[in-house]
Amino acid sequence: MFDAGLLLEVIRGNSGDPAGFRIIEVNHKAEEVLGCQRDDIIGRDFVTALPSIAPAVFDLFVGVAQTGMPVHREISIPDLDLCYELKAYQPEKDQIVAIINDTTYRQQAEKRLRIKQRDLDNRVRELTILYVMTDIVERYGVSVDEILREIATILPGGWFHPEDAVARITLEDREYLSSGFCETPWRQESPISFHGWIIGKVEVCYRHEHPGEDEGPFLTEERSLIDTVAERLSRTIERVWADEGLRRSEEKYRLLFEQMHESYTLYEVARDSDGNPVDYKILELNEKAADIFGYSQEELIGWRLFDIFPAIRESASTIYGEVAETGVPVQRRLQEPGSGRWYELHIYRPQPGRLAVTGQDITEQKKAERALRE
Question: Model confidence over 134-145: pLDDT tens digits?
Answer without folding.
Answer: 989 888 888 899
